[in-house]
Amino acid sequence: MTPEQTAITYDAIARHWDCPEFDRTSGIWQHELALQFVSRFGEALDIGCGSSGRIIHLLLGRGFRVEGVDVSQEMLRRALRHHPYLRFHRADVCSWAFPRQYDFISAWDSLWHIPLHRQLDALRKICGGLASGGVLIFTTSGVEQADEITHSRFGQPLYHAAPGIPAVLRVLAESGCACRHLEYDQYPEKHVFVVAQKLRHDVQAEWGLDQDA
Known about the structure:
By secondary structure, this protein is of the alpha/beta class. It is about 30% helix and about 30% strand. β6 (about 145-155) and β7 (about 155-160) form a beta hairpin. The protein is globular, with a radius of gyration of 16 Å. It starts with a helix and ends in a 6-residue tail after the last helix.
């Protein structure tokens, strides 16, 4: 599926994450773990921010200045109802120009909707959007090799793909980021969350990396 097709699907099912029945604690303890690695509570970005506003609410409570980005117009319409004074971007993160570097980036249950052949480049780009010492949390599928599938979610087609854990860890290292935590948090399901941190310039130089912070 293209990002445009994914947006159409999420437009149709956005209510699921913005209703009383939705568990608003979903993903929160994982973010609280990631936040333990943060040293500067400045700029934060929620990629694939969705409609519930729960992650943004958590980050605001920690003192961050938060922005959100999503491909779905309906997701963003609902997100704005929860946080009407924040800045939201309707965009495909693969082609979106990051306006700044961020001290914290969340890409919770969103990167795996990117077409498989673009995912690793998207991860590199996101790592480049981290400030020195910045922290990234994202989800992927805990597979060894690249895989993709389209299935039905709430009656709509939804695409998922993953490049495989070895490829993900390689790209993080090449991008000057250290993996701080990797966990199969819904085992035996293959849902994995990863916490990574952008290394300082001097540490990157020691590793022989020439990435920008």
